[in-house]
Amino acid sequence: MALSGIQIYKLLPQTNCKECGFPTCLAFAMKLAAKQVELSACPYVSDESKAKLAESAAPPIRLVTLKSNGYEVKAGNEVVLFRHEKTFYHKPGLFVRVDAASAAEEIKALVAPADAYATNYVGIDLKLDGFAVDASSGAVTPEKFAAAVSAVREASHMPLVLISRDPAVMAAGLRAVDGEHPLVNAADAENWEAMAALARQHQAALVVTAGTLDELAELTEKVKAKGVEDLVLDPSARDLSGSLILSTQIRRLALKKNFKALGYPLIAFPKTPAAAAQAIAKYAGFVVLDRFAPELAYPLLVLRQNIYTDPQKPIQVQPGLYEINNPSPSDPVLVTTNFSITYFSVANEVESSGLAAWLLVTDAEGMSVLTAWAAGKFDSERIAKAVKTFGVPEKTNRKQVVLPGHVAVLSGELEGELPGWEIRVGPREAVDIPKFMKQAL
Ligand code: SF4
Fold it and tell me: How high is the pLDDT of residue 57?
């Protein structure tokens, strides 16, 4: 049972020393009860109190980690319902389904391109996370399942989800990846004891599935009593509205009611791109895609990246002087901020135009041009400092910089900061930069 803020307060030192970052022990206790801080932030809690507080300090959704050959996929440990309340921490693992009934060569031909698939989005490398070997077509023997798992392993070292309700088939699959930490899918009302024994024996995480939330909660308690802690929930709904409702109810019960029996990450088996997008947003920890195709993987990876980016920490690039299309000292110097999307918008436009330029990226604390200017983080002083710090006078001979059109107002001040330099005002939008460079520079 979760402790209230007052109950937690009684277990704290009550000295109000403020070392935890809060003005009083009571304020800290309230935040701890709301799962918004870690108990370790107070260095003075006694061991006896720590034991009593352990349940309250535990994350409301258990962290489950799948491992293989140096790869890891983590899900859980989330503390909010909505991203804007704080942030989401562990991106859902994206797995590609492989039919275990297929021939080994067919499996390898499917797995290899998905394993190799990688894309770059605003400077971040994005990849899929693993494969789900599926014996649920019914015609798969233990030997066939083990052979299918081994075929996947020959083409990829990424973590696995093993899918079968038959404990004998599952045992064969697990033996094929002994020493790894895969995800066993799934324990149900019929097979849970055998599946729990297998998961414990192979140190695997275990999916628990049932038709209702009551049955699901009852089953997780039974499996946990058998010594399996790393559980994942499959609430069985496969349609868009049903899965959204159940996923939201489970998340809400875990976070708001601290209902431990449902405090585990979820797995989803979307059959359409829309269902996959919904699962990423609400609230799957593992998503098994029916097939691999780059045009499906890319938008899902980008969506996941955007949802799991901390809204309070913009994606940034390193400030500096970047070369585009191998510029010479006489090529123009364009100025922008270090907000990742701003940087890539400008860099991509110039690069694809084939024109050579220097791109001076100023430290604006990761904000876009107008936001940074309004916040006082992108001004003439910072730009002049960047010109000197990153060696623009040594690397170029033009004595000219081009400001983004949105901050034309800075041109007069910048002339004062950089005497003898010509300050030009470029277009407002990145898409217009190539035309501006051809016509005006
Ligand atoms: S660090 Fe501990 S003792 Fe000090 S104010 Fe915070 S909760 Fe109280």
Answer: 63
Instruction: Report the alpha-carbon distance of residue 337 to residue 368 in Å, rounded.
Output: 6
Task: Give the residue whose CA is nearest to atom 2 of ligand 1.
Answer: 42
Q: Decide if 63 contacts 74 (C-beta within 8 A).
A: yes
Whether ligand 1 lies within 6 angstroms of the CB of 17 is answered as yes
The pair of three-digit structure tokens given for residue 9, joined into one six-digit string: 């307060």
The model scores a pTM over 0.85 = no
Q: pLDDT tens-digit profile of 81-114?
A: 998 888 899 999 999 999 999 999 999 999 999 9
> Do residues 405 and 426 make contact, with C-beta atoms less than 8 angstroms apart?
yes
Query: For residue 61, which phi and psi values (nearest 5 degrees)?
Result: -120, 120
Looking at residue 397, its amino acid is N
**pLDDT the model gives residue 312:** 79
**Residue 54 reports pLDDT greater than 80:** no
The CA dihedral of 434, 439, 440, 441, to the nearest 10 degrees, is 70
Task: Report the alpha-carbon distance of residue 302 to residue 227 in Å, rounded.
Answer: 37
Which of 6, 19, 39, 56 is the best mutation target for the ligand 1 pocket, counting ligand atoms within 8 Å of the beta carbon and taking the most?
19
Q: Confidence class of residue 374 from pLDDT cuts 50, 70 and 90?
A: very high
| pLDDT for the residue 38 | 81
d(CA 172, CA 193): 17
Question: What is the distance, to the nearest Å, from the Cα of residue 434 to the centroid of all Cα atoms in its chain?
Answer: 34
User: Cα 347 from chain centroid?
Assistant: 25
Quote the pLDDT of residue 55: 66
Place of tokens 């330099």: 421
Pocket residue to mutate for ligand 1, from 20, 26, 36, most atoms within 8 A of Cβ: 20
Distance (Å) from CA 14 to ligand 1 centroid: 7
Ligand 1 within 6 A of 13 CB?
yes
Does residue 49 contact residue 9 with C-beta atoms inside 8 Å?
no
Beta-carbon-side half-sphere exposure of residue 278 (alpha carbons within 13 Å): 19
